[in-house]
Description:
Blueprint: H1 3-14, H2 18-38, E1 47-58, H3 69-75, E2 85-89, E3 93-94, H4 97-119, E4 123-126, H5 140-145, E5 147-150, E6 153-156, H6 163-167, E7 180-183, E8 186-189, E9 202-207, H7 214-232, H8 248-254, H9 259-268, H10 286-295, H11 315-321, E10 328-333, E11 341-346, H12 355-375, H13 384-397, E12 405-406, E13 412-413, H14 416-433, H15 438-454, H16 458-471, H17 476-494, H18 501-506
Antiparallel strand pairs: 1-2, 1-3, 1-4, 1-9, 5-6, 7-8, 9-11, 10-11, 12-13
Helix pairs in contact: 2-10, 2-11, 4-12, 7-12, 7-13, 12-14, 12-15, 14-15, 16-17
Amino acid sequence: MSGSDLAGRVEDVLAVDGEEFHARAEDEAEVIKRELDAGTFDNPQAIIGLEYEFYGVDRETSALARVPRRLLEYIGFEKELGLHNAEMRTSPQPLNPHGLAAQEAEVSARLRTALDCVASADLRLVSDGMWTIPSEGEQARDYLTGSITDREVRIASNMSDSVRYHAMANTAGADAVGMNVDAPHVSLSANTVMPESLITSIQPHYQVAHAADLPEYFTYALRIAGPLLALGVNSPFFPPSLYDDAAPEAILDDGWMSHRIHVFEAILNPDGGTGKVRFPHDFDSAEEAVDRIAADDTIVPMPIEESNRFDDAFATFRQKHGTYWRWVRPVFEGASKSSANARIEFRPIGGQPTVRDTIAFQAIFAGLMESLTRREHPVANLDWQDAHGNFYAAMHDGLDADLVWITNDGRETRSYDELYSDLFAHAKDGLESRGLSESEAAKYLWPLRQRARHEVTPARWKRHEVRERLDDGDDFEAAVHGMQRAYIDRQSETIIGDSSFADWLAD
């Protein structure tokens, strides 16, 4: 698409009446609530799914690389924010031994095809939390902030042709997004949301059987968000050129284990205020969740393209939900009445070193959703403020975070061993309750058990790699880039198959 064509589409979006858009979303919320009351969003059993983001790199240098759009279409991946991004979405499957196996098989099969295909263009797809080596001949800051003005419409130079994201820099709603990063020893200001393309994630989905039970599942999802984020941190470094003149030791001492969380919030939330990307509050009913989405601030009211889907009856609401950026969020949708569902998207986890690690997070999340609700685990009574504190403590410190938990016998504890022992026991119980054998459940959880046992996450591995290179005499940029190339090289050998990040630790 040419710049002028894209600018024209952005102008069309800017012409949408915001008040009318909001009013339609409010009206359509009533449609969803009627369908909730009728049981339309109920399912015979729990269903799982996954969104999986990658970024492209040059096969030889590991520098960031743009992925040709024609390749994305050919391999069945979807475009994401940046031209270097690609996203896979799995087909929903029942939560049982065959369903989990099907999720892993689908990811592996499609990723293998994608890796072979992009190799013909001398590219590789990387599963990670944040990239650190910019594209050849470009500085990271220039790549992330470059833009042009076409017909008074600002267009980010390296962003995909997603009209919604380009419109954010051109609408009155632009005041509602900060587009600034302010992390330890890093500051970055942009006039588009392109810096959000620094980060990539995995997002497990869990469809509840009965929509009326969504609040209970959501409460538990918020309580486990901090402990699971602590296990999955994988973005301890920015591209080195984005740092100020601080000493490497200061950067290592002051940096966070999951800068991805901060980047998403800082770019899409207003400066100094609470915005759309945040740790959400509990809700008491599915209807309340619907009302919250409908009432959420609208940054970019979009024109609605209707088809013959069942959920076209609330197409504006669905469009609005697309910018309901909570770290854990409820979803109501379905192409047909029979496929209509209420689900939870779990969004805190960055991309992981291997497919097996990714599926381990999908399995532990699903297993906990099953067991904690069925067993009525007392951690549901953990104060929301404590769950919120856990989440941001995990962002900062990973497995070193001081997390509070309520054990199975109702005791409050800050014991690392008690928390993770309880967490894994219930995840295993939940998987076994869905028909997995003891050994099958253990196999899915093993990669994350090893992280907890050895207290090593991908972020900690990266920090260790950088420290070793600094000790060997590398400057900071060389140390970070050397770490990143080592990460990508190890991943190229282990991303598909029986290997996991735990095997990196054994070598």
